[in-house]
Amino acid sequence: MSKTLAPSVPEGTGLGVKSEAFTDARDDAGQPGSHGDSFAHYQAAVARLEARLNLVGSADRSTGALRIRANRRLERLRAYLAFIGSPEADLPVVHVTGTSGKGSTATGIAALLRSGGLRVGLATSPYLQAATEKLQIDGRLIDGSDVLRELDALEVDERRWLDADRAASPLTYGEIWPALMLRWFARQGVDCAVVEVAAGGRFDPTNVVRPVATVVTTIGPDHLASLGPTLTDVAWHKAGIFKPGALAVTGEPPGPSFAILRDEAARVGAPLLAIDPADAKEGADEPVFHQVNAALALAVVRALHARSLLPMVEPDPAVLIEARLPGRLESMPQDGGPPVLLDGAHNPDKIAALTAELARRRENGEPRPVVLLGVLATKDIRGMVRTLLPEAAAIITTEAGVLGKRPAPAAALANAIRSVGFTGPVAAEPDPMAAMAQARALALAEGRGVLATGSLFLVGRLRATWFPTNEIVRQQTPWPERRPA
Question: Domains, the chain, ranges and CATH?
Answer without folding.
Answer: 35-325 (3.40.1190.10), 330-466 (3.90.190.20)
